[in-house]
Amino acid sequence: MENKRNVTRITGGIWKRTPVPIYSDNLVRPTPSRVRETVFNWIRQDLQIHNCSVLDLFCGSGVLGLEALSRGAVSACFVDQNIECLNYIKRLLSKLKSMQSVELINEDVSIWLQSRFPTNYDLIFLDPPFSFNNPGTYFSLVKPFVKKNGLIYLEKERSKSISLDSGVECWKSARAGIIEYGLYRIL
Question: Do the beta carbons of residue 47 and residue 123 sit within 8 Å?
Answer without folding.
Answer: yes
